[in-house]
Amino acid sequence: MKRLFLIATLVGAAPALADEGMWTYNNFPSAKVKEKYGFEPSQEWLDKARLSSARLAGGCSASFVSANGLVMTNHHCARGCIEQLSGAKKDYIANGFYAKTEAEETQCPAMEINQLEQITDVTETLNKATAGLSGKPYSDTLKAKMSELEQACSAGDAKVRCDVVTLYQGGKYNLYKYRRFQDVRLVMAPEHAIAFFGGDPDNFEFPRWDLDVTFLRVYQDGKPAKTENFFKWSEKSAKEGDLTFVSGHPGRTSRGLTIAELEYQRDVAMPKMLFMMSEVRGMVTEFQKRGPEQKRISNNLLFGVENGLKATKGRLEALQDKKFFGQKVAAEQELRKKVDANPEMKKKYGAAWDEIAKAQGQLVNVRKDLAFVEQGNGLSSSLYSIAKTLVRASEELPKENGQRLREFNQANVPALTAGLLSPAPIYPELEIMRLSFGLTKMREELGSNHPFVKKVLGKESPEKLAARLVKGSKLCVLKDVKGSKVCDVAVRKGLLDGGKAAIAASKDPMIQLALALDADGRAVRKNYEENIDAVIKKNAELVAKAKFEAYGTNQYPDATFSLRLSYGSVKGYLEDGKKVEPVTQMAGTFEHATGEEPFALPPSWLKSEKLLDGATAMNLVTSNDIIGGNSGSPMINKDAEIVGLVFDGNIQSLGGEYGFDESVNRTVAVHSDAIIESLKKIYGATRVLEELRPGSTKIPSVPTKPAG
Amino acid sequence: MKRLFLIATLVGAAPALADEGMWTYNNFPSAKVKEKYGFEPSQEWLDKARLSSARLAGGCSASFVSANGLVMTNHHCARGCIEQLSGAKKDYIANGFYAKTEAEETQCPAMEINQLEQITDVTETLNKATAGLSGKPYSDTLKAKMSELEQACSAGDAKVRCDVVTLYQGGKYNLYKYRRFQDVRLVMAPEHAIAFFGGDPDNFEFPRWDLDVTFLRVYQDGKPAKTENFFKWSEKSAKEGDLTFVSGHPGRTSRGLTIAELEYQRDVAMPKMLFMMSEVRGMVTEFQKRGPEQKRISNNLLFGVENGLKATKGRLEALQDKKFFGQKVAAEQELRKKVDANPEMKKKYGAAWDEIAKAQGQLVNVRKDLAFVEQGNGLSSSLYSIAKTLVRASEELPKENGQRLREFNQANVPALTAGLLSPAPIYPELEIMRLSFGLTKMREELGSNHPFVKKVLGKESPEKLAARLVKGSKLCVLKDVKGSKVCDVAVRKGLLDGGKAAIAASKDPMIQLALALDADGRAVRKNYEENIDAVIKKNAELVAKAKFEAYGTNQYPDATFSLRLSYGSVKGYLEDGKKVEPVTQMAGTFEHATGEEPFALPPSWLKSEKLLDGATAMNLVTSNDIIGGNSGSPMINKDAEIVGLVFDGNIQSLGGEYGFDESVNRTVAVHSDAIIESLKKIYGATRVLEELRPGSTKIPSVPTKPAG
Hints:
- Chains A, B: This is Dipeptidyl-peptidase.
- Chains A, B: It comes from Myxococcus llanfairpwllgwyngyllgogerychwyrndrobwllllantysiliogogogochensis.
- 2 copies of one chain form a homodimer.
- By secondary structure, chain A is of the alpha+beta class.
- Chain A has 2 domains: 25-112 and 182-255 and 558-692, Thrombin, subunit H, CATH 2.40.10.120; 356-557, no CATH class.
- Helices cover 46% and strands 16% of the residues of chain A.
- In chain A, the strands form 4 sheets. In chain A, strands 1, 2, 3, 4, 5, 6, 7, 8, 9, 10 and 11 form an 11-stranded antiparallel beta sheet that branches.
- In chain A, strand 14 (477-481) and strand 15 form a beta hairpin.
- In chain A, helix 11 crosses helix 12 (343-349).
- The longest helix of chain A is centred in the C-terminal third of the chain and has 43 residues, at 509-551.
- Chain A is globular.
- Residues 1-16 and 699-708 of chain A have low confidence and may be disordered.
- The A-B interface holds A 198, 200-202, 205, 267-268, 271, 274-276, 278-287, 309, 313, 316, 320, 433, 437, 443-444, 447-448, 459-461, 464, 594-597, 599 and B 198, 200-202, 205, 267-268, 271, 274-276, 278-287, 309, 313, 316, 320, 433, 437, 443-444, 447-448, 459-461, 464, 594-597, 599.
């Protein structure tokens, strides 16, 4: 990994130069884009782009690409669904999927798509409500007021989701109103071998040759939903220098964190997480050798772990880079100096950094209990999570909305219910492995004499307890439906509907355990939320406000898995002194193949090699500022037409969590031409093609002119 | 983990206070011991203790405990042998081993024991030889001169091993002459369940209840060797406050490293190692589930990995501790100030720290190549290591001694040959797993486009290549001897004897690969040794000399797996404000048991519970300064009698790599009384008992008076 941080700016310390920024749609720097690229997005352009963008509630981005609800995202974003629809005899991960007719479009067991319909600034309302408060009263009031706003916004409509989004670490609050699509069906997915060609070794690398695409469709009342806002497909290939926009949902950046928070990430949180993930990776890799079925059911988990490992290692390296970290320290010191130099600012904000540092110090002490007693790091089982949610739902849902644990807010209830009643299969063998592992880690981290460990394990070993719990639970009774395994969720439904009485009467071992441990988790959480998290949030808000006062408000907030728009251009970069060209070609895919996983092309590609135009653009990189969560984002040109499908960042971009370096940070996308060429010549996916580019199945595909 | 660093001293910065120090036998601070404990070891006492101490060449300590070559060490130090002697039908790890007659004592396939006969200071000779040199000429000359001294010392006698030991980072060089015992036989080992009671969860913890002991015997000419120097068994139990000595071979400390070196350890080396080891741990844990035989053959590997993981995490936490690291920084700054203040010292030593820092910076750049191209992190296979050693031996052994790669020095040839021709079994299934993993990591770390990766993998996947290499190699042809698997090493012997011609003609795929990669490894190593390692060594020597000039020579050197003596006393400590008592009792063993691994006692113990005196001392802690490598060390009283058997340090002691804190750092040992009580009442090991305490099988065992 080449690390070459010449950070143009650190959020808040100076106006953003270069192509930096994951901008909110209500604060997009159109004028700045015009200055650099000669094009100024209008309000109409922005509204259309916003409404054509989509979010997968599970943690990815997507876009509407036809008026009939066709949605484009990454294969790796839809793989949960593809895997769930597969069975031992019909492996859509390995063989791909294509619905030749509408009737063949198959519903994903647990997928929800959101469309951002409206943004309202509610900062003033919330600031007024919490004025003068701190600690528990502050966080209680903030939570209650947020719930109230969200509930008023959705007004009991299950098709609407409203979230108060905390921006600028609490410097601003916006209410985001989404339309929810919960009937999502799989339309077309290529084989995993080409969707994730190069596998983990090539992940976050460039040059690259992936067709990481999947098409879904949102349905309403059993029919394809009408989506008047969608992105058209570009007739012109994107080439070096072209202006590009990416509209998507970057999950999280930490550019506004204080040094104390960054040090905690660098020295405690990230190393611990990496040790755990590395171990899971080794375990799952070996678990896969038990047999082909075990491989199939654990592929999704392994992908997630490997992807997370590589991403987190990149982030850790960024923070370990002395020069980079030094810049962060310098920026904080500069701001603190400005604050201290102004008596009024000093009074309002001066103590905020030290308060955060103190709270971080306390977090070190409660970290393990928080992770294992409340956050389920030890009880790492889907069944246990469901049991815990059912137990808490029975307790929380009867309460006043403002009094509930935040995840049980009325606004979350539809998503919560959908999750609890999802028939997505849960495989006992995988569950037992994951849970045994988690219980072992719990004992390792907390120690064999910790009261919680004794309470959970008793005299049982992690393996025996895990097997007993998983085998004894009826929360997912697997059954076969059209060759796919799904959960019969009748027991869950009974427990959800039956409330506290049903929970108390349940003999299900997962429910009984969740019930026995509930108070322990709540106590740890309460202490954390009231004495640590509330302090950090409150003071982070002060730091954000200090930045506004010192540097003005023309800034972008840290990413929060809410919709953002970034701008940039198709652009190569230097690595080891050599230029990396920004566009790869289809011919390179075949050159890079070895015939062995993960460099083995699927039969459909090998068979079609001669039919393809080898010069067709395959993947491309742009200088857009993105991060994890942006996977599946549409890459569009100034006419708001699809020119690519974002699926990755290069390895240099991983430090983007903490800062942006335009010289090397790159967005990696599937080129729109590769999608058309393969749909046409490899997959014969005429239905999809016709929707993307009406008439295109009758004319030859446009050959790409690769840049450089 | 409680971290409470109040380091009495940092090596070199001030005279050692408290019980700090792993002292060489030729610079032992007897006067200081007298001052604190009222007893001054005489030269005779020291000589006797030195000659009664033993080293397991594989990386542990031990002691002679009878005149007939009886050796005591830890079970975990001998587990390689115990495992190798086991087979599917006679599992000595699970069931223990006891040779009722001399004839039943069974030879360990790959074990060597060394006894330190003589120490000679050769500092002046080497300094003279390298005077005025630096870079390659410096390291070449140093290496050649060391070889010359070693060769002259052993004078071709295969029963003698001579090593020039680098002390004080090169501030001093001592020639250590060892007597070598290569016929080592297993006499008695308890079951793994009690030898490692509490397993990984209790590892490095205290209170503790382990019987981590194994008895071996050295043979000469087919008969038990006569060992006139040995430790007698104490008739008196060690109790709180008693003076204790530990004579053993601490493997490595890094108390004298510069800040640049420590930062490299903290930010690069240790995290990378931990990620790798965590992954191996997950993989092997899951590999064990393939079946009981797989579990048996991989237990040793898993133990090593888990032990290493916990130890390394402890070390990393020490360096991440800001206060602790700050003390190291302050000590270095103080020394540099002293150097800079004295024009003559400044001229000699002033640049050393920056030179080391520069070299560390270069190490970051070549680290991956060094690890994967030369050090075999990717080709992680015992067969490949043997192949590589055979290939290099054919190249190196014909050379002049001084011209060879250091590990092929004449002094090392006997050990090298013994290793190459060891019949210790190598299991293909485990080999394939380890090698596949290593190759995958190699591709991950170096990238799929690295020339070395392409050379190794070609178009094969890591799994296929590993399987082809392991299955195709004849370097270990497994055969059954008396129910145990051993390697037929005829092919290896032929290649070793046949030299270059035999190597070139070999069709063995491991040999062919090792041959093909040899030049790559040598090139990377040459660059590292000449441009980085030589610079660090040379300048570390200057730093050490600066310390001598600034603070005098009454210091102990960093540990280097050479014999050291430490002093201390039986002593509890505070944890979470509560006193941890220094001695546990046998009754506690039964209380701590759950019946589930790793807290399940073996049947022999469960059966004997009523026969045992529950008040017998089981384990104890002392304030001796030790570290990994000290496992198996005798713990002796002022009469040089055995009072314990060192097998661990407490978790607080892991930071001992970088500094010693007498308030909490503790050595953990099996109490001598527990060994006697269990040999007598559980194992009926009369032969061993009679050797340890002649007549003891006729009298009742001495009940322990536990301290506190």
